[in-house]
Structure prediction request, 851 residues.
Amino acid sequence: MGRYVARRLLQMIPVFFGTTLLIFLMVYALPGDPVRGLFGDKGGSPQVIAALRHQYGLDQPILVQYWDYMKGIILHADFGTQVASGRPVTDVLGDAFPVTLRLGGFAFVIEVIFGIGLGVFAGLRAGRAADTGVLLFTLLLISVPVFVLGFILQWIFADELKWLEPNVNDPSNYGELLMPAIVLATASLAYVSRLTRTSIAENMRADYVRTAIAKGLPRRRVVGVHLMRNSLIPVVTYLGTDIGALLGGAVVTEGIFNIQGIGGTIYQSIVRREGTTLVGLVTILVLVYLVASLLVDLLYAVLDPRIRYA
Amino acid sequence: MRGARSAKWVAIAAVVALGATACGGGDGDSKGDSKAAIDPNGTFTVESGEPQNPLQPANTMESYGSIVINSLFTGLVDYDDSGKIVYMNAESVDTKDSKTYTVKLKAGWKFHDGTPVTAESYVKAWNWAANPDNKQTNSFWFSDIKGYDAVAPAKGKPTATELSGLKVVDDNTFTIELSKAIPYYVYKLGYQVFSPLPESFYKDPKAAGEKPVGNGPYQFVSWDHKKAITVKKFAGYKGSNAAKNGGVVFKNYSTPETAYADLKSGNLDVITQVAPKDLPVYKQDLGDRAVDQAYSAIQTIAPAFYTKQWKDIDPKVLQGLSMAIDRDTITKTVLQGTREPATGWVAKGVLGYQPNVAGDVTKYDPTKAKQLIKEGGGVPGNAITIQYNTDGGHKEWVEAVCNSITNATGVKCSTDPKADFQADLQARDAHEVKSMYRSGWVLDFPMNANFIRDLFGTKSDGNQSGFSNKTIDDEIAAADSATTLDESVKKYQEIEKQLPNYMPSIPLWYYKVNAGYSEKVSGVKFGQDGDPILTGVQVKK
Prediction:
């Protein structure tokens, strides 16, 4: 077990360098220049543009830039400076991450509780009306675009009923985060419940379930322990990758509810060609993905005793 | 319980069903502002965003930063809404030859840290900002001053760190010598790049960009990055535009939609733009708290004159293309009335603006358009493309303009979208535009020279189309060397009258401010730059 974890951690190193280099090259390949972009329609003085490019090392070859940047990150946790604002990228990240963590965590909890709940509910009634109802409902959730759902909820609950605030003005207030978290969770929630439902419906006919029932175990235990544990493997896999998506992919939701989080920052960095900010963000997201996938693999062993890591 | 729950769902379903008929509620009858008691120390919130750069006056180019800088700093002069000069920190700005200006300051002005505003505060600040080592994005604004080439040479090492044209005479007087005469230089001085800086600024310019100390009607309180910037009324302010309120909070909104939602729910007092989604209903929602007025900016399509297609084009062809665009219909439908068809190259609210200066050229007339294009020898290749950036909401109107041209003249027209403004600028800078591109200009100073000289002079910074014409250059030089401001304005008006014969760009429409405010505030007006005039806003008790 320990050796397995160590091996996985070592594997992360090349993945980390590979992804960051790829992102760096991608941003570099896009037309446009963060310094020139500061000047907009009006053009700026070439001397100042040159001075700024020199300050941020943009006049160096791309690989040298990457090398310097990585050196900064690894040796003294320095993610560079944002070209436009002149603020350290660590500050920018420090502003955006807590909000997104709260929102993403909230959405994740909603997703797990309601997704698995609905899935189990439907899976145990496979083929009946309740099951069809859940399938139709989740299909609806999947097919409605996020921004449509966001605006509709905002309009109903904030403009018309006035139960909730339309936007998040205080990101530490969970009451204000409720609506965006629901919007963010819906699509994943639908996938989670469908995965759970199918998995449960399949395992209902498995031998070990029949044995458990024959042994006279109470239904609660059959479903709660025997059935659930085995059925959750595909669901846990999906949830693991979804953590990263919730943190980095909330661009639309954050935009609708005016949340200054990671999603919006990523979008802005791409538009402004802020390579350093973007790579800093993505670096952290890559780490989140790697750690999440490691946790998922370790959870397999917990869920299914037949899986063992030497 | 179950019954209750389903009743709620039915109610929600009913609300959704009603959604098709937009319910424009809102209290449109909030008249009698004058009767409401005013709280002189009340604060209000304004929609804004995270400034792109640190808050240094010479380092701010975009609107989010500008609106804050304008509240914190007061320069020598300002303009009223007809484009006339109003003296602020300056007692007078005099010149005999339009080349050497003598600036006298009003005595007794102070920075927010209590230090006096002197001639030195201006001269030192300008020298600092002009120096390329300090990397101020607006530093080229000082290029008219004598000695700029020594401070920021185009090539090689600087030979000076100070502009030789700036001289302090005494505490309240300094002189500006320009490298060549500019009769309207006093207009340029109204731009915020010419703000004074306190002595404390130079100790740590970076920190000063985070916590600016100015001399304006408001003083800085806090900047919570990406959330809000707070300023409060400066009690020791001596200017004529002292704040009628206690302070302003510039709240960060990622989209105009979210700001509008907050305005309606009472969490925000002033919005600066209405999102396309809300345009059809905002006047209903807000009643007489909706704002709809012109401001000094223009949208144009510029031919890239460095391409084979337009290099030696007969202007008649461009006149024809211009007459093939149905501006009235496009501004009414596609742009939902947020723009006003342009009739010239100089925007409204600018000194020297002339209505209908382009004559027939900006009127829609398909028959004449076809005829003109034919007379001019046709469009080379009989096809044009219009480049634009897809991240700025331009797609719809560019397509509409294209369809209009094709329907009227048969010239093939397609769009050439660039993913974002950065990519669009890159192509323009590198002279890679295939045929034509979307261009725009928001005023720097409210005089017609800004819309002509700075765009169509061969060597101007704003000239990205490669337009170059000796006659126009000579006339610009003549207008610049006029002895008085009025004469210069007149000469520029003459140039504008001739522009239809050269067609440096195709004017499309003027911008308008579509905005609104809450019931908590009154006296909300918008300036020619499209920003709300903060000091005049009154907060109700």
Notes: Chain A touches chain B through 55 residues (CB under 8 Å).
